[in-house]
Design brief:
The protein is built from 14 helices and 15 strands. Strand 2, helix 2 and strand 3 form a beta-alpha-beta unit. It folds into two domains: 170 residues, no CATH class; 205 residues, Rossmann fold. Helix 6 crosses helix 8 and helix 7 packs across helix 8. Helix content is 31%, strand content 23%.
Length: 412
């Protein structure tokens, strides 16, 4: 089926921070941590695995400010079971983000060893990275955003990094097994009450995945302030400008793009047993073509798609993916969908199985990934509703879906 495609651009609002170190310095001064962080203190700086804009620069700036307070910071990976659930793998993930000992000016202490610091009222154990627990205090750095598994007052951010990121593999498994929405804040509250955490740096990004807001938060304010920051973050999120699609083609998935490889808030798919599927967008067929190199073979989230390519499947490190998938207990997300030899065959199959559609009425959209949604490739049938949206601009007519001689999608 020949489908006429157009390139369109979403114009998102949102300012970005030009001087990251300067803003971090201002935030430290504003929050006045001098009374909290003592000179000579060994401070564990918790950094995660997400593809956060400017993360290396932000962590480096925070390390510098902690040194200015007289502290002796070191960095600990706070990423649950990511990196293949190994100490070496987690350090490798940090290095891939530009967080190296040389660049940060601080050592990285990576270990999967944890201590149990408590048990909540439901009997769920709470774990904490041993290196972090034995420090003089923990400083957490993370982006506050909507979670890809649930909807709640506290989702993904500083609180989750305490509960799951610093809980390492054991903490990740425990909380996913018993339910995230209620147990993340409960677990974090136990850690916070015992005084392990001194403060943190909350990051917000605008719809163009740029750093738009930074705030140093004292530990006692985490559970209240993060609720307010999450509301703000959700107003900044980029989404697809549709209510329904026949086919969505995602060129690349990956752990640096989303914890689920593809953002469930964009796909409108959760694939979590016992939870209803979102109803804000309905997509009949999702095709994913590639796994990003910096996912190191972890294709968690490939099960959110209906079709994929042999190339993607061949790039999977099943040990790394299964370590992550099994720890979450969301097994559907690790299942391999139907896979075909080429991009063209995968996309053609999605179109053929999407129902009684024609080249004139098919609702087809192609995106680079679920994080970068400024530029979209859409079928002609979607133009009329897009042209009515003030933030959408039709850039050019592309014609039929372009492929290389190897039948790989020749876009982005």
């Amino acid at each position: 089926m020949a489908v006429t495609m157009y390139k369109v651009r979403q114009h998102f609002n949102g300012e970005s921070i030009a001087d990251i170190p300067g803003r971090v310095k201002d935030e430290f001064a504003k929050t006045n941590l001098q009374g909290v962080i003592k000179p000579g203190s060994k401070i564990a700086v918790a950094a995660g695995s997400r593809g956060i804009a400017n993360i290396a620069e932000i962590v480096k700036a925070a390390v510098a400010e902690l040194k200015n307070l007289g502290a002796e910071p070191f960095i600990v990976p706070a990423m649950g079971s990511h990196g293949g659930a190994t100490a070496e793998g987690q350090k490798k993930v940090l290095n891939s983000l530009g967080i190296t000992e040389e660049e940060m000016g601080a050592p990285i202490r990576s270990s999967m060893e944890v201590i149990q610091v408590g048990t909540n009222e439901e009997g769920v154990p709470v774990y904490l990275d041993k290196n972090a627990a034995e420090s003089d205090g923990i400083f957490v750095i993370n982006r506050v955003k909507a979670h890809t598994d649930f909807d709640a007052p506290i989702e993904s951010g500083l609180v989750k990094m305490i509960a799951i990121g610093l809980g390492k593999h054991k903490g990740c498994v425990a909380l996913h097994t018993h339910g995230l929405a209620t147990n993340i804040p409960k677990a974090a509250a136990i850690v916070l009450k015992q005084g392990f955490v001194l403060g943190g740096l909350a990051i917000l990004e605008n719809s163009k995945e740029e750093t738009t807001y930074l705030e140093v938060v004292k530990a006692q304010d985490f559970l209240i302030r993060e609720k307010e920051l999450l509301k703000k973050a959700k107003t900044l999120m980029a989404k697809l400008p549709f209510k329904a699609l026949d086919v969505l083609v995602v060129k690349t998935m990956g752990k640096a793009i989303s914890g689920t490889g593809m953002d469930t808030n964009v796909l409108g798919r959760l694939r979590v047993e016992g939870l209803p599927e979102p109803d804000d967008i309905k997509i009949k067929r999702v095709v994913v073509l590639n796994l990003a190199n910096n996912s190191y073979g972890n294709a968690l989230g490939v099960g959110l798609a209906d079709l994929t390519t042999k190339r993607l499947v061949d790039s999977i490190d099943f040990d790394a993916m299964y370590a992550n998938v099994i720890s979450t207990s969301f097994l559907e997300r690790g299942k391999i969908p139907i896979y075909l030899p080429t991009d063209k065959e995968a996309i053609d199959t999605a179109i053929k199985t999407a129902g009684p559609v024609t080249e004139e009425n098919i609702r087809l959209c192609i995106i680079k990934n679920t994080l970068e949604l400024e530029e979209l490739i859409v079928s002609e049938s979607l133009l009329s509703e897009l042209q009515a949206l003030p933030h959408l601009e039709v850039v050019e007519k592309i014609g039929d879906i372009p492929y290389s001689d190897m039948k790989e999608l020749n876009l982005f």
